[in-house]
Amino acid sequence: MRKIILTGDRPTGRLHIGHYVGSLRQRVELQNSGLYDMIFIMIADAQALTDNIDNPEKVRQNIIEVALDYLACGLDSTKSTLFVQSQISELFELSFYYMNLVTVSRLQRNPTIKMEIKMRNFGKNIPVGFFTYPISQAADITAFKATTVPVGEDQLPMIELTKEIVRKFNSLYGKVLVEPEALLPDNKACQRLPGIDGKSKMSKSLNNCIYLSDTADEVKKKVMNMYTDPNHLRVEDPGNVEGNPVFTYLDAFCKNEHFSRYFPEYNNLDELKEHYTKGGLGDVKVKKFLNAILQEELEPIRKRRAEFAKDIPEVYNILKKGNYMAREVAANTLAEVKSAMKINYF
Ligand code: TRP
């Protein structure tokens, strides 16, 4: 069977280092591994509109920001198809048929949706489009017959629902659709990177992000102001590495080679954590180390972003070509779906 990747992001803001360790970095590795027959990376603007219907301008502007972030990270339009969800009308046709395979109570049990409904204070006024976006996400995945969906852990309920839809569809109408597997980053710290304030998740609305497009100065300032262990007041005090975002970021970014480059007093992260836990290691030193690592990782991304940003029409061209390719694949699947459902009258 062919190995196909589909994944994507909502264009509601620039992408941050949580997106990077949670998915982007891995996508680039998968792309460059040569193990996949096709890779589709989608800017999910239609999904973004399900809770931004009053702010289309925001979604519009962030399409280009997200495309720049993708290219900056090393997604390469000659190896991966980058495209815009709303331009593939086949996806919405598929969604409409899939809606009959899912119950309202099934959607109500989706923990990600539940949490999002709470965070957005929808109360009783949940837009139907928002409520049903997991079904549209199943259409995104199955339209490309994706076998692998690299995502963060908050997306697992969507992949689960997609599998259920695929099983139901195939058992009713014959084997047309492919069951996807989620692919999470193997490192726990990468699955849910906390914000610089130590709050549960890095998120634009909490204003606690380090963006891929932040300048070197901005990154440094944010790192030096990061929340750490509030009981670690003096250098001599024992410190806590659990729930300390500085150490979580180190878990996500630090490699042993960084020590010889920037912190030769230690051989590895375990030694550093041990010293911090025991006492006698100040936060400033650890933050300076983290800053050095982040700068090393983010500098090439920032440079590539600036290069691509010099020719925005070319970035739109890349997306346009991607739309064309994506549309062809989705149209084939839709034709198969419709004929399996006997909607091929003429
Ligand atoms: N829900 C994803 C997000 O919040 C975006 C998305 C839409 C997606 N369709 C998808 C991700 C299909 C993976 C597969 O960013």
Automatic annotation (TrEMBL):
Top-level taxon: Bacteria
Give a Gene Ontology cellular component term annotated to this protein: cytosol
SUPFAM superfamilies in UniProt:
Nucleotidylyl transferase (SSF52374)
Q: Which Pfam families match?
A: tRNA-synt_1b (PF00579)
Q: Which InterPro entries match?
A: aa-tRNA-synth_I_CS, aa-tRNA-synth_Ic, Rossmann-like_a/b/a_fold, Trp-tRNA-ligase, Trp-tRNA_synthetase
A GO MF label: tryptophan-tRNA ligase activity
Q: What is its EC number?
A: 6.1.1.2
- Do you know which Gene3D superfamilies this protein is assigned to? HUPs, Tyrosyl-Transfer RNA Synthetase
Q: Where are the transmembrane segments?
A: none
Alphabetized UniProt keyword annotations: Aminoacyl-tRNA synthetase, ATP-binding, Ligase, Nucleotide-binding, Protein biosynthesis
Q: Which GO terms describe its biological process?
A: tryptophanyl-tRNA aminoacylation
The record lists the catalysed reaction(s) as: tRNA(Trp) + L-tryptophan + ATP = L-tryptophyl-tRNA(Trp) + AMP + diphosphate + H(+)
Q: What does the similarity note say?
A: Belongs to the class-I aminoacyl-tRNA synthetase family.
What name has this protein been given in UniProt? Tryptophan--tRNA ligase
From which source organism is this entry?
A: Caldanaerobacter subterraneus
